[in-house]
Structures are given as C-alpha cells and as structure tokens.
Predict the structure of DUF1330 domain-containing protein.
Amino acid sequence: MLPVFLHIESSPNLQESQALQQYIGLTPQLMQQYGGVPIASYDVEEALDGGRSPRAFVVVSFPDREAIYAFFNDPAYQTIIPLRDKAFAHLRFFITSERI
C-alpha cells in the first residue's frame, strides 16, 4: 500500500508568533500518533503566476487516508484549532497520493 501525503500550504500571522510557536510545538507529536512522518518543508520564494503565495509548504506522509482524518478528528487536535486559527493568516491542507 502506498502512503498518502498531507500537503500543508501556510503563511503565519506575524502578529501571533506566540500562538504559532505553541501550535508548531504541539502538532508534530499528535501527527506521529497517527503515523505522520514529516517528509519535507519548503519556503516559497516566488509565485510565478503573479498571485499571492503562501510562505511555506510542508509535506507529511501518513500510512493511509484514514490516519489523516483520525489526526484531524482527534480531540487533542480539536482543542488547538483556535490556536491554529490565530497562528496563521493563510492555511490550507491537501490530501494527495502517488499515481501508479
């Protein structure tokens, strides 16, 4: 079975650096409980289409789609969503899988 990836597109809220540090400190441990393994983290240098671009992309591998849903539905994660919403000016999550 091929892994499934969570791609995270984000821009921090620069006025909420404390919330950002708290969120970043809590999230990796929760992801690991569901088999989440960070694969890559990228700073976005430029949007070639001229549009607004996020500041960063992060890629996390999970064993399957259900593990990603379980992570997002975990009560511990649910309690930090208000912190997440303060910490980021822009945040989107994408589930992707490899083509065979």
